[in-house]
Amino acid sequence: MKSFASIALFVLLGLISAVVIGFGQDLSFAKWSYDEEQEKLSERIIIKFSHVVAENTPKGLAVDRFAQLVKAKTKGRVEVQVFPNSTLHSEKTEIPALVKGEIQMIAPAFSHLSGTIPQWAVLELPYVFRDQKDVDEAFRGEIGRMLFSTLNQSNMKGMAFWANGFKQITANRPMITPDDFYSQRIRIIPSEVLDAQFRTLHAIPIGSSFNDLYSMLASGKVDGEENTISNVYTKRLYQVQSHLTVSNHNYLGYVVIMNQSFWNKLPPDIQKAIEEALAEATRFNNELSVSMNESQFEKLKEMRVMEIHEQTEEERAMWRQALQPVYDQFAPSIGKPLMDQIKELHKLPR
Questions:
Q1: Predicted TM-score of the model (pTM)
Q2: How far apart are the C-alpha atoms of 91 and 189, rounded to whole Å?
Q3: Helices and strands, number each (H, E), in the chain
């Protein structure tokens, strides 16, 4: 019995020695490899960028370009995960999600900010920009700086302004004069300013998400809508709308925002890389939005799928006069400093 126990003990000790001596190096390597991988994972910074438009729009393409630039400039230390087409958040939920830190970046339309920060309504006023030069001056100048400063109180950091283009009117009948809007159901981005704009024209504004727009037009829930040429083309709204009026009556743009707390925790070199990437993506977006709207307008004309009317100077004057009450209604809540800046902008020669 003792002999059997001795033999068993000898065999057990031999096996233990074999494991330690024969496989010890492999076990040590496995542990080292796991720790290194964990360290790499812990060092990687994830930025969730949520937006609501298609990938082939100026904003969608610019977000993808930004993600690529960040990866290159940080050598893979930062990964921007892009969630387009409201796959993660809708217009209603993206701002609260950003403030809470559930996502790190968004690029909402101005209208989605004006409901809680009244100063942003200044960018929604009808005919507030005469042309693209006015837009560029506002975004790069004092108007842009003043608007960015209003975000700080809500744990948001304004990073950049992105262009989409001037809005046009689509409908299933000609929309030439202010009287043509009477009783027409017009889909809008939910916004007090846009609501007031169409009520002033005696239309019936109906707020909805962008992703619901096509089905609302196709089903007849609304008669018309306002949008950029690029959105009309990429969303194929010409399939459910017969008339297009080139009015340039409003401007559709976006503000790129990051969660302020998240930004403050980033290392300085990462902040610098993100700012550089965003500056490049912004130039790309703004140039693309102009060229895309121009080229897709030409395609719409060639396709002959819509009857297109380009607003005359006389017609524009009629629309501006009809919409003046919108300025009177919202100027007090926007505030004198910003309204004064708009007046100065309009004094610049064109």
A1: 0.83
A2: 9
A3: 13, 11
